[in-house]
Specification:
- The protein is an alpha+beta fold and 185 residues long.
- Among the domains are: 44-101, Ubiquitin-like (UB roll); 110-176, DNA polymerase, domain 1 (Orthogonal Bundle), CATH 1.10.150.
- Helix content is 34%, strand content 14%.
- It has helices spanning 3-14, 47-54, 110-117, 127-140, 146-152, 163-176, and strands spanning 26-32, 35-41, 73-76, 79-82, 95-97.
- It has a five-stranded mixed β-sheet, with helices on both faces.
- Helix 3 (110-117) crosses helix 6 (163-176).
- The longest helix is centred in the C-terminal third of the chain and has 14 residues, at 127-140.
- It is elongated.
- The termini are far apart.
- Bound molecules: FE2/S2 (inorganic) cluster (2 copies).
- One FE2/S2 (inorganic) cluster (FES) binds next to loops.
């Protein structure tokens, strides 16, 4: 038997066939705001569309739908992601947190309270994404200075230009948590 023929024999005997999912509808299991969800979706469905269209969690906003505005920011396993650029199928077995899960029942998250205190929104369209990013920002330790806050919040656009107020809200929560390092702008 030739070397080529031997390789063919070994390959076909040892390699497991790839298990593909899709392009037909496929079952995906994930947790959203600590509630287990089992959904049947096309593999091409974004996490944003799953949340808004299938789970009726419309707090997460669709602004640009191609990764430039930040309105669709949610957390996956505690890390902020753009849900419009995240395939829902990649969240299999993961914990997704959205704006609807940020408050503790009727008790607002400190960042939500600070946004209200500092008037950190006008129309409110960008606000869910701003809040999810702001909460992650503090977890990441990227809020030492106003410049750092500005840099690490730069993926979240606000057409109403509430940026100074958003930074003030973030500073308040940071300082309340003992992370004050820089004077306000
Ligand atoms: Fe996702 Fe704009 S809707 S970044
Ligand atoms: Fe209107 Fe930010 S509050 S876009």
């Amino acid at each position: 038997m030739s070397q080529v023929k031997q390789r063919e024999v070994v390959t076909s005997a040892t390699v497991e066939p790839l298990t593909m999912r899709g392009p037909a509808d496929t079952l995906v299991s994930l947790s959203v705001n600590r509630i287990a969800r089992l959904v049947t979706i096309e593999p091409r469905v974004s996490l944003l569309d799953l949340l808004r269209e299938r789970l009726q969690l419309t707090g997460t906003k669709k602004g640009c739908d191609h990764g430039t505005c930040g309105a669709c920011t949610v957390h996956v396993d505690g890390r902020r992601v753009l849900s419009c650029l995240t395939l829902a199928i990649t969240c299999e077995g993961r914990e997704v947190s959205t704006i609807e899960g940020l408050a503790d029942g009727a008790t607002l998250h400190p960042m939500q309270r600070a946004f209200i205190t500092h008037d950190a929104f006008q129309c409110g369209f960008c606000t869910p994404g701003q809040l999810m990013s702001a909460v992650a920002l503090l977890e990441e330790g990227h809020a030492s200075t106003d410049a750092e806050i500005g840099e690490w919040m730069s993926g979240n656009l606000c057409r109403c230009a509430a940026y100074p107020n958003i930074r003030a809200a973030i500073r308040e929560v940071r300082d309340a948590a003992g992370g004050h390092r820089h004077a306000a702008d």
